[in-house]
Structures are given as C-alpha cells and as structure tokens.
Amino acid sequence: MAHPLLLLITILFPFHTSAQNTAGNVTVGASLTATENSNPWRSPNGDFAFGFQQLQENNDLFVLSIWFDRIPDRTIVWFERRSNPVPRGSILRLDATDGLVLRDPQGRLLYNTDRLADEVAYGFLNNTGNFVLLRSDSTFLWESFNNPTDTILPTQTIEIGGTLISRKTPTNFSEGRFFASMNSNGNFVFSTKTVLSNVDFDDEYYNSQTSDQNASNSGYRVVFNERASISVVRRNGQQLILTPRSVPPISDFYYRATLDFDGVFVQYYHPRNSDGNSRWVSARSWPDNICAAIDGGRGSGACGYNNVCRLENNRPACQCPPGYSLADPNNAYGDCRPNFVQNCIQGSSQDDYELLEISDTDWPRNDYEQINPSTEEQCRSACLNDCFCAVAIFRSESCWKKKLPLSNGRVDTTLNSTAFLKFRRGDVPLVNPSRPSPDEPKQDRQTLIIVGSVLLGSSVFVNVLLICAGCLGFFLIYTKKLPVLNLVSRDGSGGNLRCFTYRELEQATNGFKEEVGRGAFGIVYKGEVQNGSKRIIAVKKLDRVAQDSEKEFRTEVNVIGQTHHKNLVPVVGFCDEGPHRLLVYEYMSNGALSGFLFNDTKPSWSQRTQIALGVARGLTYLHEECSTQIIHCDIKPQNILLDEYYNARISDFGLAKLLAMNQSNTNTNIRGTKGYVAPEWFRNSKITVKVDVYSFGVLLLEIVTCRKSLEDLEFDGENPILTDWVWDCFVEKRLDDLVENDFEALSDRRIMERFVMVGIWCIQEDASLRPTMKKVFQMLEGIVEVGVPPCPSPFTSTAA
After folding, report:
1. Domain Protein kinase spans what residues (predicted)?
2. Phi/psi of residue 540, each to 5°?
3. Which site in 181, 352, 437, 617 is 20 to 30 Å from 497, CA atoms measured?
4. 481 known ligand binder
5. From CA 538, how far away is CA 643, in angstroms rounded?
6. Fold of domain 459-587
C-alpha cells in the first residue's frame, strides 16, 4: 500500500508548488479557474485569500478579488472592476510579461496588469492583504494597494491622485456614484459626479480642509497605519487624525475602511476569533450627515431623483414620497418615478388637482420661483394654479415652487416646513397605504391565542373528528381537481405549469370578452382565476399551431415553462384540449412598451434606460443562461410588456419555435416585424441569436429617441427610417437632435451617446460584427468599453 501512496504524493506535490509554495509565493505559470471549488492563493498567515468569489445571486458569475478568509462572510477588500463579473470557467494566469492575465472560457482577454516595467519573477499575497508582483530582485512591479477599489487596509496609503470608488449596490461591483480621493490641493475629499454636456462636475460633500497656501503645510497622503488610525499627513510632518483616539486593539480585531455604496466612508472592525455570529462594527464614519452634506446644484443628492433621504444611525435611508415608486425596485437608493402623469393641459384649473401635505421634507435645489411673503393658503393656491408646479414648500412665511425631477431630497425636522405634493384628482395616494396598523399584529396574535386555546381545551375525541373531516375534505377536493392540476415537465411526467381546461379559461375570460392585445401569434384576452386568491391573467389563443403534434407542443410548452427571469413575462399554464391551444401568462398591468413609449407624454430618461437594460438582461438569459437556448425572432415594443413597477418583461418568447416546430437553422419563412427584421432573414442565411440582437438594436434606438423605427409616409421630419436617421446624426455629431427638448437625456449625454453606439453595433448588416446580448448588456452598463461603430449598412446607399 505504501507504493501507490508514494506515487500519489509524487504526482501531486509538483502541481501544488507550481501554484503556491509554502512561503506563499505564486510562481509564473500558476493559474486559478472560476469554479466553486477553486483553491485561492492565500497569505502566509491565512488571513487573506486571492482568487474567484462566487456571486450569491448568480452561481455562474464570479468576482476576481481579495478577501478576509478567516471570517464567515469572506468580506471582499479588493476586486478587479473592469472585467467584473466573469463567467464560470474563466482562467487567471500569472504571466512573466503581462503579469496577471484573465481570460474567459473562450480564451478572450478580460484583464491584465499592463504597463509593467520588467518581467515578473513571482507573485505574493502578504499578510496585510496586499497582492504584489515582483521582479527577480524582489522589486515591486505592481501591487493591489496602489490600485484600490472601494477599501483600504491597515498599512495602506492613498497618495495624491489616488481614488476610491464605491460599488453600485452592495452586490453589484460596477462603478458607483461616489468617489473619495486625495486631490492636488492637499485635501481628502468625497464627491459625487454628474455629467452634463459631456463634462464631469464634482459635487463635493466632505473635505479634510488640509490644504494650505504654503504648499509645504498641505496634505499629501492619507495613511491607514498599523495601529488602525486613519490620518491625513501634511508635507511638514503634521497629521490630521480622523479616527477616534480609542479603538479596539488591532491584535484582536481586523480593520478596514470602505467607501460604501451609499457614499459613507466607514472604518470597520471585526473580531479575529469569530464565533460565527460576529459582524463588522463601525468605529467612525464620514460625513456626519450625508443627507445634508450633499447639497449641490447638479446631481440627484444622496438618493436618486425624486427620492427622499432620512438619516438613520449616521447612514442614509432612502424612501420614495407618497405617490412615487422606485424606478428600479431592486435599488432603494435610486430614482423614484411618479405614479401619475402631470402635464400642462389647456383649460385645466386648480379644481383638477389636489395637494397632499407632508412635514419636514424638502428638495432645496429645485426652486424655480419664490413667493415672499406668503401665507400657507396662498402657497397652496399658487401651486394648484401653476401647471409646472409639482411640489410647494411653505416655511417662515415664504413659499418655494418646484418642478420635476426633484433632487437632494431630505427629511429635516429643524426646518419646521410643510411640503405640498401635487396630484391630479383621483391620483392622490394614501400615506403609507401598505403599512399595517400597530394594532393589527397584536390582534392577529390574540386571535391565534384564542383559537389555540379553544382547540386545546376541546375533547380529544372532537379534535380527532375535526382532523379526520379535514383530511377527508382535502382528499375529495384534491381528487376532484386532479385533472385540472395535471402538470407537464421535460419528460411529460410533472413540472410547474398548470394545465387548464378550455372551459376554465372560457369562464375566466367571461367568454373571451375583453381583448387586450393582438399579434402574429394570436389574440390575447384578460381573465381572472382563483388560486387561493384572485389572480389576473392574460390568455393567448394560439391560431397557428399544428394540430397533429401534441407531444411536440407539450415539449415546447414545457421549455417555455422552465424559463424564469425577472425580465420575462411569467407563464402560468396552458391548455391543450382538442383543437384548442392556449398559453396563460401573468397579466402585466401597464401594457406594452409601444403604448408607453410613443405616447404624447414622453417617459423619463431614467425610466427608458432601465427598460432598455431590462430587455437586454432578459434576452441575455434567453440566449445564454436558460436550460435551452431560445431565439425570440420578434423583438419589438409590442412584445415588451411593463409590470406594475414599469419593469420590462419580454413576452412571446419561445413562440417562434412553438408555432413552427420543424424550425431549422436555415430560413424557411421570414419571421418578425417590418422595421425590426435582421437582413439574414432575406438571404436564406443561418438564423442565430444575432437576429434578436439586430431587433434589440432597433428597439434600443426607439427607446433613446421615443420614435418609431418606421414613420408614416406623411412624416415631415427627418429621415423616416429611424436607423438611417440615427446614423446620420451620429456621423454628423448631432446626437442632441435625437433627444430634442429632453433635458434629462441631454444632461446624461455620456450614457445617451453610449446607448446610441451600442444600438448601431447591434444593427450591423454583417451579423458577425454584432455583439452578443451579454456583451450588449455589459456595454450598456458601462462594464465593457464601447468602440466607435462602423456604418451599419456599408454596401447600401445609406448615409455614411
């Protein structure tokens, strides 16, 4: 038995030393793979690890990072931002010439430590959490401490020009809104950035005040020393100590200082010997009140536009005012959208509007008119009679009128002010309508106690009878409904879709009475079913399904039923009864994007960008992430539905194949809608996911411009073909014409230009030039750089 064991040790030992030897050195050629079981490179004392950390919300995505390895939550202190996140199977390799080289599973370069002065001899993660690349004489060529992300550690410094950038959210490692840097004047400053007309404006909300007219007295470095003290060091040797004098000893606690996603810079500590219940505790945070500290004339403030900031435990808590809801339900710190349409309508009067009164809330940077002196009643009347007025603030016998979007919103109990929020009659919301009364939980508990007491106080015989009766009733109900709850799965044996009878759906839709949509695949009707509670559904009657393909129909329906994503319309069930083939979906209360986008009232720019990202996210899932790849074949505004929060949901996915089950990779029948159809449909070419990319590109340009892809012949404006007009504006540097009179889009010109360039890349006539939907999404998010696109139709007469 000794010989096989010796052989095993001989085989494994060289492999282990090629990655990381016992001294902690990482040799050239060593590599790490993005998987759950990847063994990271660790510091000699085991406190830190360098490698891939799996994202909790998506098990197929990983972050290249450095983290605390001895505490349960493995807190990340450095991460590679440009490539984040990377797909499963990506490989990091230590190369002598290029340093750290990260490639995706297809071998494409995602990141490398460029501009190295010499060849790398080895890498090393030291006991302070600093990963370094060294020359053969141990000279540092690169170190993570000199390339920080959002965190610094003891012994780390921030030199002049050094910057920390917050994450977008706690779990989204993309670049956020907040910056902390040591500037050339000698101050350690925190700021937000706003882009107007392609120019960056800083909105400073903290300043260490360490500059001096005498340069030798100015600050030049932020130091987080080995005793866990943070200070700004002046050139004359003096220090401005920022942290409290008394903090727990660093021998017993880990320390870090992080610019959190909400803009607060916090020094944290955590016990080294964690019992599993320990957590990071704040020792000090800056600024003291970020809600009041961010008070610039540009940008949204500590929270998003129309949002309101309230200070809780020195941290901002953001909440939409009554009548507003989050543009992105997953980001409570983002923009709030009004749940109503407010505009100037000829002939309207103050009788058409109402005001909702809230206290101690203000948006101090949105005034366009002040009335002084004013009474409270005069202030109310002035806002009601002004169609531009969205909110009026009454304080100290003065009235300030404000219009949307509102910025720098905050709660301040020292103001002694009253805010009047304006709504159309019938749209006035209840304040906190969903919040239960304080007595409700108590009443519920009392009810439960009474019921429990009665049951326990009854005789055993009565209780047995009740239990038997309940079981019998459940059995009868279950057996009666068994045919209705017949489900299908991949093998036809069971799954998660409800099989409805035709009669059920006929009753649910009141005889298919209320038509809510009509398209290439059939007519959609609104209905209502009971499933423990009332549920509104949309029933699509399919009119082009082959009738002799029951098995294939159920197989394809099951594939559709296996798709679950927040940007897809959820499928509830189906009907496959004789000649009747129907699909049942959740009802989307805000209808199709076409009605929202091409209306008289243009949706806000923030709403449009979120919708575009949502569609891109949903298509990425269909193409790359669901169990069976789905090509939609008919992406257009009519097939993008909006839920109650105006989240984009893709509908009709999977129907192209369902309604032509002999579909091959070669064109047989042109599918799609005029204006959105990719050129390869007309060429008998191979049909791939790139047809959806083309259609999405057209849709994206529609979302940017709020203009249809093909205008009517009577159109008297620019080129009636949207894609041609956008290209003309792009090459002639007239992008502002695309969003004329849209101040919000014009003030966000960098993102607007990025979206336009991505759209042009998507509509390239040569399908091989179009990016994948995953790359499209990353480009839209700003994770991947967008190059200048070529003319989309170089072989046609399109303007160039």
Report:
1. 510-796
2. -105, 120
3. 617
4. no
5. 13
6. Phosphorylase Kinase; domain 1 (3.30.200)
